């Protein structure tokens, strides 16, 4: 297969261009996260699978841009960017906020007759499982405390007060997007869904993860790992292997 030359723009990071890859994996970061979180995933899967990581506005090289604090607005913007990349089958992977966003993106893609090979929803309860949460309304110290408790932010960044203060607007915006999201009942996805969760994640119960199965008419799989909300930091190899096997079996 000959790769198409596409400008990635502000939204898409293509760390290891793989023009001969037959499929792509689209990765969606967690709240406060950035596309670079998925650099190791891209390195591990290239050149068999080309990884595209989504970069939300308000962080890293996009830190001067307006943050988007609404999942549906984010999904509309991402889909507008991904239309140029639908020349090959794609699989979606999202962690935490990224899982909810990936779900909304998948709904929009399927409405345009682009059915993903699958959706991997990691570290997030099913869209129909709502909790009242108000982390985005915390003061800066409360927000920092949440970051430290969740252990999803680089430890060096947490120790750098100046750097930490720089990312707080994006973190707050992301938490607002996640916490104000409300599922709108409608047709489920056609693509398979794989829910991934840690067995000690305070943000997701096993039952809440299992309910992702209600959101697809396709196959559903639940995978439970030892660990908390960022279980995947310790089990990256197993998660990547599962994604690779899923794509290979398409």
TrEMBL record:
SUPFAM superfamilies: alpha/beta-Hydrolases (SSF53474). The keyword Hydrolase applies. It comes from the Bacteria. Residues 26-247 form the Thioesterase TesA-like domain. Keywords: Hydrolase. InterPro entries: AB_hydrolase_fold, TEII, TesA-like, Thioesterase. It holds the Pfam family Thioesterase. Belongs to the thioesterase family. This is Thioesterase II family protein. It comes from Sphaerisporangium dianthi.
């Amino acid at each position: 297969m000959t790769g198409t030359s596409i400008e990635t723009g502000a939204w898409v990071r293509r760390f290891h261009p793989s023009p001969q890859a037959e499929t792509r994996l689209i990765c969606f970061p967690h709240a406060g996260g950035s596309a670079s979180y998925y650099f190791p995933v891209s390195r591990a899967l290239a050149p068999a699978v080309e990884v595209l990581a989504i970069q939300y506005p308000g962080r890293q090289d996009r830190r001067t841009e307006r943050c988007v604090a609404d999942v549906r607005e984010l999904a509309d913007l991402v889909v507008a960017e991904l239309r140029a990349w639908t020349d090959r089958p794609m699989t979606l992977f999202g962690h935490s906020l990224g899982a909810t966003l990936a779900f909304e993106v998948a709904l929009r893609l399927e409405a345009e007759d682009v059915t993903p090979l699958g959706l991997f929803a990691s570290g997030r309860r099913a869209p129909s499982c709502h909790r009242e949460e108000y982390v985005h309304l915390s003061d800066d110290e409360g927000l920092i405390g949440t970051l430290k408790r969740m252990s999803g932010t680089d430890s060096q960044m947490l120790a750098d007060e100046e750097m930490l203060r720089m990312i707080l607007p994006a973190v707050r915006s992301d938490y607002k997007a996640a916490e104000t999201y409300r599922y709108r009942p409608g047709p489920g996805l056609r693509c398979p869904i794989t829910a991934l969760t840690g067995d000690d994640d305070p943000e997701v119960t096993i039952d809440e993860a299992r309910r992702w199965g209600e959101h697809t008419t396709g196959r559903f799989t639940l995978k439970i790992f030892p660990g908390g909300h960022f279980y995947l930091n310790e089990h990256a190899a197993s998660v990547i292997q599962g994604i690779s096997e899923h794509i290979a079996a398409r």
